[in-house]
Amino acid sequence: MSAATHSVAILGGTGGLGKHISLAFLTEFKSSFPTVRVLTRDPSSAAAHAIAEKGATLVKLNESDLPRILEEAFKDIDVIVNALPVHISEEAKQAVIYAAAKSDVKVYFLDEFGQDHRVEGFPGSNHPEWINKQRIAAETRRKLQGKKVIALYCGLFFDYSLTVMGVDVEKNVYSAYGSPSQRFSTTSKTDVARSIARLAILALDPATAHKVPNDVRIAGATVSHEEIRDIVARVKGVSRGEIHSEDLQPHKEALRQNPGENFIEYLRVIIAEGKGNLSLDNAMELVNPGEAFWKWTTVEDHMRAL
Ligand SMILES: NC(=O)c1ccc[n+]([C@@H]2O[C@H](COP(=O)([O-])OP(=O)(O)OC[C@H]3O[C@@H](n4cnc5c(N)ncnc54)[C@H](OP(=O)(O)O)[C@@H]3O)[C@@H](O)[C@H]2O)c1
């Protein structure tokens, strides 16, 4: 690992993904990042305490004074990771972009961390969340010219993928839209967090910065419903469960007629069409060459821990 030291500010660093990001910087990547600032609306929360105990400096976010607080929080910071949820106010989104643009930050991670929606297939009726993410990404890149702005796509998180993809481990039933052998990518939150830290180090090092794309895809594991069913049977010592397969076309047609609202339906349809498979054209070897930094968590590992 490079001997250079850096500083990072994490927005949403107490959250579902964010706490893993905070912990990765505070533990495995501590020698590269002695300064970790986590922005939170409530520094007294249990999640904020847990991170502070590991060495993070907490910065209290106050919506009424956001521009000033962000400006202060981004001072002397090399990397900003935006792990805020999509539903935060437009005003807050704009305040983050404005403060990041004004700062001397060198690397900025967009609030992506999901499907690679650049390849999604709903022309004219894409999901509002993805349309919004694309708008914010374009605006951030325009306003942060001269800084490295990275979108990291990792597919579904393990825990999320199980709940939304029709996988019921308890009942040992697996429901796919379309073919149950269609594969999709899923990554553990810990590995997403480690990848962010590694990309930050690579992007900050003048010798490797040119290797880091603006749009980065990773795929901790790529599996189908059938493969998950077989993994559960192996790991839990149960018989191979039932597979259900639903016709994809009515689901796709329903979204065409009623675009918008149902995010999980969008995910399931695009995954059924093979667009959730990030196993090709990804940056796994750049991020973690030959698994030199960590072993990617497998679906087997995840099932064993359930
Ligand atoms: N790939 C996947 O399967 C998947 C699944 C879920 C999310 N994601 C992505 O991961 C990223 C983070 O999502 P997440 O679910 O981890 O976020 P989250 O846990 O919902 O929120 C992260 C943190 O943001 C702060 N926060 C929450 N609501 C806020 C508000 N209205 N205004 C200001 N701050 C607020 C909270 O911190 P404090 O209370 O400490 O302020 C919270 O701990 C997003 O880009 C999301 O799209 C991906």
Automatic annotation (TrEMBL):
Taxon lineage: Eukaryota, Fungi, Dikarya, Basidiomycota, Agaricomycotina
Identification of the protein by name: NAD-P-binding protein
Organism: Trametes coccinea (strain BRFM310) (Pycnoporus coccineus)
Presence of the UniProt keyword Oxidoreductase in the record: yes
Stretches assigned to the NmrA-like domain: 6-239
This protein's record includes keyword Transferase: no
Keywords: NADP, Oxidoreductase
InterPro entries: NAD(P)-bd_dom_sf (IPR036291), NmrA-like (IPR008030), NmrA/Isoflavone_reductase-like (IPR051609)
One example GO MF annotation: oxidoreductase activity
